[in-house]
Amino acid sequence: MRKTTTSTNNETICSDDLSFLGDTLRTQENVEIINNVTIQSLSELIILRLKENNKSIIEELQSTIQTEIKKAITELREDFNNKTNYLTVQNNDRKEEIESINNKIEELRIENENLKKELKELSIQIPRTPNNPDNNDKKIVLYGLAEYYKEPESELHNRLIELFRDIVNVDLSGYIEHMYRVGRKAVKNRPLVIELLSKRMTKYLINNTECFQGTGLFISEFLDANARKERAQMRDKLIQARKNGLHAIIRNNKLFIEGAY
Which residue spans adopt a coiled-coil conformation according to this UniProt entry (predicted)? Predict the structure, then answer.
C-alpha cells in the first residue's frame, strides 16, 4: 500500500512539474509573439513615418523650387522689360537724330539749289569781258616743262617755284597768280602760260631767258591771237627788210628798221 501511495505522489509531483513547465513555455511563446508583433508594428510605424516625412520633404522641396523658379522668372521678366524699355528709348533717340540729320541734309540741299540758281543768274547778269591786253604783259610762256596727268595745281605751283629758284635764282613765291596749259591735249608737254602779279618780274624773266639754255626749257612773252597775228606780220616785214640789207629788229612788240619805228 505504501509503495502505491508513494508512486501516486511522485506522479502528482511530476504532473505538477510538467504543468508548470508547459505554462512557462506557453508564456515565452506568447512573449515572443508579442515581441514579434511589437517589432513588426514598430517597423511599420517607422516606415509610415519615413514615408510621411519623405512626402513632407518632397512637398517642401517642390514648393521651394517652384518659389525660386517663379522668383527667377519674375526677375528675368523685369530685366527683360527694363532692357526692352532702354532699347526702345535708345531707338527713339536714334530715330530723332536721324530725322534731324535728314532735315539738315534737306536744308543744305535746298540751300545748294538756291546757290546754284543765284550763280546761274549772276552768270547771266555779268557780261563776259574781252581779254585785257594789259594782263598779257604779266604773262610768260614756259616751253618744255613735263606735263603729268591730272597733276594738282598746288604741285605744279611748287614745281615752278623750285624750277625758277634753281635756274634763274629768283623766288616766285607770292608772284604766281594763275597758270594753265595751251594747245591740244594730245600734244605732249604743252606750253604752260604763267600769269604773274608784277610786270617788273615778268620783264625780268624775259630779259634772262639765256638762263634756260641747255636745260631743255625756254620762256617767251605771251601773245594772244591778235598779238600773234601782228607778230607774224612784223616777222614777215623783218625778213623782207633784212633781205634788203637793212638792220631790223623786233623789240617790245614793235618793229624797228634802221633804228626807226
Answer: 91-125
